[in-house]
Design a protein that fits this description.
With 137 residues, this protein is mainly alpha-helical. The protein is built from four helices and no strands. It has one domain. Helix 1 runs antiparallel to helix 2 and helix 1 packs parallel to helix 3.
Length: 137
């Protein structure tokens, strides 16, 4: 049971890393395809990309929160020891580093050029992306 629990505790952040890379690269691809918001199709692509980011972030909360819960379960049931907390911390640091690396791409999206016609809609999308759990457009 110990090995299975530790595999879950380490495996879930690995899944989180893959997810971070996948959705981070999707954001970078969006920027490459759409250097500026100048048409309704550009705005549609932004909304679709950002919505996927928002849903992925919700899944990430579960994926990255579960190892902590599993660790405490393991300690309470005496399957794991306090030192096993390193199996939670080290993978979490890797996921944190990947998240920080993607902040640059995120910042580029938030500050991309936008034609005046779409400025209000763009601001709304960015505001929802940063502050709400679900897209509302």
């Amino acid at each position: 049971m110990r090995v299975q629990l530790l595999c879950l505790i380490v495996g879930l952040p690995c899944i989180g890393l893959v997810s971070s890379a996948w959705f981070g690269l999707a954001l970078a691809r969006f920027l490459k395809r759409v250097p500026a918001i100048q048409s309704p199709s550009d705005m549609y692509r932004l909304k679709r990309t950002v919505a996927a980011q928002m849903y992925a972030a919700l899944v990430q909360i579960v994926i990255l929160g579960a190892p902590v819960l599993l660790f405490f379960f393991g300690v309470v049931t005496k399957i794991l020891y306090a030192i096993d907390f390193l199996f939670v911390v080290v993978p979490s640091l890797a996921v944190f580093g990947a998240g920080m690396a993607m902040k640059t791409v995120e910042r580029r999206v938030k500050t991309m050029p936008v034609s005046d016609e779409f400025a209000d809609d763009f601001r709304h999308v960015i505001e929802v992306w940063m502050r709400k759990p679900f897209p509302d457009w």
